[in-house]
Amino acid sequence: MSEQFATWSKPDDLSFEDWIESRIARFKGRKYDWNALKFQADFDPKYRRAQMRYIGTGATGVADDTNTIPAEHFTFSTMVLPSKCEGPLHVHDDVEEVFFVLKGSIRLFLKDGDHYTETVLGERDVVSVPPGIYRGLLNESEEEALMCVMLGTPKPQIPTYPDDHPLSKVKRNG
C-alpha cells in the first residue's frame, strides 16, 4: 500500500470492533436529503431529487454532513429521481462520475462539444462518464428511479451547467 490516510488507521481509543462500526454507514441511520439540490427544484420542480450520502458528501455542495464514512478516493451516495423529474445537463471538469441504476430506468444525455447522444439505462446498468463531458438524466417512467452515484475524488468541485442552460444563472441556496 503506497498511501496511508489517518482514517485508515484504528484510533488508539477505539476497539477494533468500534472502529469498524464507525466505517459502516447503515441505511437506518440515513435520511434522504431533498434540500441538497433544492435550489434547482425551487427554480423548476422537474429538477426535484434527493441524495443519501454514505461515503463523503458528493458534489451537491453539502459539506457539513458528518454522518458519512470519510472519503479518501471517491464519494458514494444514492439518488432518488422521482417520476418525470430530471437531473439537468451538467459537467464535472475534475472527476469521473458513475451512475448505477438500482431501481427503475433513466434516460441519459451526454454532450461533448458538437457530439451528443442519448441512451436508456435500466436496472443494474452502469455508466462511467469521464471528466469534461456534460451529462444529464431523466426519469420518463411513472415510478421513481433509484441509483448509486460515485465520484472519483473525495471532494469534487461543484458542477457547472452549459452557458445556455437556465440553471447556469441560478444561485445556490445558502
From TrEMBL:
Highest taxon in the source lineage: Bacteria
MF terms (GO), sorted A to Z: dioxygenase activity
Annotated ranges, domain Cupin type-2: 79-147
InterPro entries named in the record: Cupin_2, Flavonoid_dioxygenase-like, RmlC-like_jellyroll, RmlC_Cupin_sf
Gene3D superfamilies linked to this entry: Jelly Rolls
UniProt-listed SUPFAM superfamilies: RmlC-like cupins (SSF51182)
Keywords attached to this entry: Dioxygenase, Oxidoreductase
Entry keyword annotation includes Oxidoreductase: yes
Keyword Nucleotide-binding tagged: no
Pfam families, A to Z: Cupin_2
CDD domains tied to this protein: cupin_PA3510-like (cd02225)
Identification of the protein by name: Quercetin dioxygenase-like cupin family protein
Protein species of origin: Halomonas organivorans
